[in-house]
Amino acid sequence: QVQLVESGPGLVKSSQTLSLTCTVSGGSITSNWYYWSWIRQPPGKGLEWMGAIDFSGSIYHRPSLKSRTAISRDTSKNQFTLQLSSVTPEDTAVYYCGRRPWAWSDETTYDYRGQGIQVTVSS
């Protein structure tokens, strides 16, 4: 069973950089044919795919967030990370990491997902 656990600060001030880490167990982030995604859900809104890193290390960004996001991985720790710069209160959301099989086209879907972490951006 694959498990993902998000970690990071629950409260960030405006203009700062949010850093989140997803720790994966029960499966390797280098295993063939998976995307490892970051998805968020602002209060009262739907899921928003932010970006992903795939099994080979290729990185994908949501175009509207590309200038503010950085995604990386540490294969020795089986972790991948998200950095979101210049945050504003509009970035307040529950942030999830998840695994998406290569053949699944909907970027907001996953077969395994973390429990989510609430991040609040204060003004």
Task: Characterise this structure.
The protein has 123 residues and is mostly beta strands. Helices cover 0% and strands 51% of the residues. It is built from no helices and eleven strands. The strands form two sheets. Strands 2, 4, 5, 6, 9, 10 and 11 form a seven-stranded mixed β-sheet that branches. Strands 1-3-8-7 form a four-stranded antiparallel β-sheet, with no helix packed on it. A hairpin with a 6-residue loop joins strand 4 (34-41) and strand 5 (48-54). It is globular, with a radius of gyration of 13 Å. The relative contact order is 0.32. The mean pLDDT is 97.
Beta-strand segment tally: 11
Q: How far is the first residue's CA from the last residue's CA?
A: 40 Å
Radius of gyration: 13 Å
User: What integer is the average pLDDT?
Assistant: 97
- Estimated structural class: mainly beta
Helix content: under 10%
Main beta sheet strand tally, sense and closure: 7 strands, mixed
Order of helices and strands: EEEEEEEEEEE
Beta strand %: over 45%
- Multimeric status of the protein: single chain
Give a short summary of the structure.
The protein is an all-beta fold and 123 residues long.
Key terms:
single chain, 123 residues, mainly beta, seven-stranded mixed sheet, four-stranded antiparallel sheet, 11 strands
